[in-house]
Amino acid sequence: MRGTATTALFLALTTLCACGAGVRSTPDMVRSECLSRTRPDCFSFCNQYRDLLDGAKFASKRDCREACTGLFQRQLSGPDGAACERGSGAGEDLCKLYCNQNFD
């Protein structure tokens, strides 16, 4: 079920971003959009995605995307992982979208 929801979210975000051609997401945009998709007790998960991307020097899009996936996996394995899976999944998708837009 998460895969289907993730795919739908990714397609929706991709479509929105295509309409605003030339507008690249920022770490703060990733955080803000993530916050709008999760519960207040899971906001720290969104902050972690912003922190991951803010000032990061990834060698490639692949490295950036792998960092997003790694954070998602660490969050899910933590004590609040199950309760915050929706927010963490949104954060991962937004993080990867950031990578796609900002790295070749």
Write down the overall geometry: globular
The average pLDDT score comes to 85
Beta content comes to: under 5%
> Number of folding domains?
1
Note the total helix count: 5
Total DSSP E strands: 0
Taking pLDDT < 50 over at least 5 consecutive residues as the criterion, the unreliable ranges are 6-11, 14-20
- Binned, the helix content reads over 70%
Distance between the termini: 30 Å
Radius of gyration: 13 Å
Molecular structure report:
Helix content is 70%, strand content 0%. It is mostly helical and 104 residues long. The chain has one domain (2-18, 27-102). Helix 3 (43-53) packs parallel to helix 5 (85-102). The longest helix is centred in the N-terminal third of the chain and has 18 residues, at 2-19. The radius of gyration is 13 Å and the shape is globular. Mean pLDDT is 85; it is low at 6-11 and 14-20.
Short description:
The protein is mainly alpha-helical and 104 residues long. It has helices at residues 2-19, 27-35, 43-53, 61-77, 85-102.
Features:
single chain, 104 residues, mainly alpha
Give a topology summary.
Layout: H1 2-19, H2 27-35, H3 43-53, H4 61-77, H5 85-102
Helix pairs in contact: 1-5, 2-3, 2-5, 3-4, 3-5, 4-5
